[in-house]
Design a protein that fits this description.
Layout lengths: L2 H6 L17 H9 L4 H5 L17 E5 L3 H10 L5 E9 L3 H14 E10 L12 E3 L8 E12 L11 E10 L4 H4 L10 E5 L6 E5 L5 E5 L6 E5 L5 E5 L12 E5 L5 E5 L7 E2 L8 E7 L5 H16 L5 E7 L22 E7 L6 H8 L7 E6 L35 E7 L3 H13 L5 E6 L5 H14 L5 E6 L3
Parallel strand pairs: 1-2, 2-3, 3-5, 4-5, 5-6, 6-7, 7-9, 8-10, 9-11, 10-12, 11-13, 12-14, 13-15, 15-16, 16-17, 17-18, 18-19, 19-20, 20-21
Helix pairs in contact: 4-5
Length: 482
């Protein structure tokens, strides 16, 4: 037995030892058990004394980590608190029937947040052969987070989520007669403020009409064809890696009506005829993806449309660009000269997927249009199948014009730089050294090396960057740990 438990254990009425903890009031003992952070372990405290035997059933917070689903159901059924403020369940390969059973029990008493995550191993039963988890109506829940590992989910056909403020649906396969549009209606979710849907199937069309939503994130919905958002209170919208046909983005339709929007991340192809953003006059932060220097006419045309989106919002304060290069040879120069200046931008986040191409010229072109930037976040994004990466082909014009290596650039407001994914290529090193030269008032630089870098290479780069740094610059080095 654990020494601490041995010291606390007393027999019932035999006078052996002194049980000081059991003399504490119930509310204080319950607070102690909440700190145990695991419902099963809290229940095991009954070995301490009979005084503790039913205390776990009074806990306002319940956490289940890899507990059998019949055990979760039994624990919830035996629980005596009418208002559970937090329920967390981390499970493995659950059957939809077993999860449905205990979720319905939980819905009776939950008055706060519920977080459910299903971790499924590769090679388990195909999702299509399984049934769907029957989600009950959580009348008193304030936050629902479901990450179901591609299991089916059937939404409740009726009921009002009267207090629900946040809803996250990740890794779901939507089934049943009730659609997401019905669930999100003001009649059923009258208080909803935050919505996040990611890596979900069964969502070809999404219509969101809400008077209360202020944040919406739609991520990795690759089968999405139509999106409609009417949300007068919405201030943040992120749509990333969505829609079915990326080569023909005009076939994907989106209509956004959010007049109070201040932050927009549109990390997809953009076509102004099919993507309608409405009257957005308060935008302060914009994130988009550009596909640089592609010889295909359609892709080149899409780049032009992306530039029109940038030209529409020149008064923003924060700019987030993901710049992607093609794998093959680049023959048509991207019209970077049409990129507008951003006189009010103070925060710039630049992600680049290079596939062996020289991206210095494009990054230089962005920075020279954001000379008031105070914070720069630069991310060298690893390419897919990095081990098969080939050098930039002969004749590629990706480094044109090459004057970024020598031309002066006054970034006299730039005080902080963070660089992620540094692998130590010649191009990456050359760009960092130029940043030391351009950022005359730099106070802090943080460099996070890619996990693949060797210890000797990392040491070499540390010494090199420190030799170019100035006394007033605080240098911070670390290595990404997945």
């Amino acid at each position: 037995m654990d020494p601490m438990v041995e010291r606390l254990k007393v027999s019932d009425g035999d006078g052996v030892g002194e049980d000081r903890l059991s003399a504490l009031p119930d509310d204080l003992l319950i607070r102690i058990l909440v700190l145990v952070n695991d419902a099963a372990e809290a229940a095991q405290t009954s070995i301490l004394a009979s005084r503790w035997r039913r205390l776990w059933a009074l806990l306002p917070e319940l956490r289940f980590y890899y507990v059998e689903h019949h055990g979760i159901g039994a624990a919830l059924a035996a629980h005596e608190v009418p208002d559970v403020t937090l329920l967390i369940a981390l499970t493995e390969d659950a059957s939809p029937e077993s999860m449905s059973a205990w979720l319905h029990v939980a819905a009776r008493s939950l008055s706060g947040d519920i977080h459910v995550e299903v971790r499924r191993e590769a090679g388990t039963q195909a999702e299509e052969k399984l049934g769907a988890i029957d989600l009950p109506c959580f009348h008193k829940a304030t936050c629902i987070v479901l990450n179901l590992g591609s299991l089916g989910l059937a939404l409740p056909p009726s009921g009002v989520f009267a207090r629900l403020k946040e809803l996250q649906l990740i890794g779901i396969r939507l089934q049943g007669q009730t659609g997401l549009d019905d669930l999100l209606s003001p009649q059923r979710c009258p208080s909803l403020e935050s919505l996040r849907v990611g890596d979900a199937r069964g969502l070809d069309i999404i219509n969101i009409h809400s008077e209360t939503l202020v944040r919406v994130e739609l991520l990795d919905l690759v089968r999405l064809q139509e999106l409609s958002v009417v949300a007068p209170a919405l201030i943040r919208l992120k749509v990333s890696n969505c829609f079915t046909d990326t080569l023909n983005p005009e076939l994907s339709v989106a209509n956004i009506s959010a007049p109070q929007l201040t932050s927009l991340d549109w990390m997809n192809y953009y076509h102004p005829k099919s993507i309608q953003l409405g009257n957005v006059i308060h935008l302060e932060s914009l994130g988009i993806q550009l596909y640089i220097l592609d010889g295909e006419d359609e892709a080149f045309e899409n780049d032009h449309y992306g530039m029109t989106l940038l030209q529409r919002f020149v008064d923003i304060h924060s700019l987030d660009l993901m710049i992607s290069y093609p794998k093959g040879i680049c023959t048509v120069p991207y019209l970077m000269e049409h990129m507008p200046k951003f006189p009010y931008v103070t925060l710039v986040a630049l992600g680049v997927v290079g596939y062996g191409h020289s991206f210095g010229s494009s990054l230089f072109a962005v920075l020279r249009r954001c000379t008031g930037v105070k914070e720069l976040d630069l991310d060298f994004v690893p390419e897919i199948q990095l081990e098969e990466q080939t050098p930039c082909p002969s004749g590629c014009i990706c480094d044109q014009p090459p004057n970024w290596r020598t031309e002066e650039l006054a970034l006299d407001c730039l005080g902080e730089i963070a660089i992620h994914g540094m692998r130590g290529t010649d191009l990456e090193v050359a760009l960092v050294l130029r940043l030391f030269h351009w950022a005359t008032v730099l106070k802090r630089m943080k460099i996070i090396f890619h996990e693949s870098i060797t210890e000797s290479k990392e040491k070499e780069l540390r010494q090199l960057f420190l030799s170019f740094s100035r006394l007033e610059i605080s240098m911070d080095f670390s290595t990404f740990a997945p």
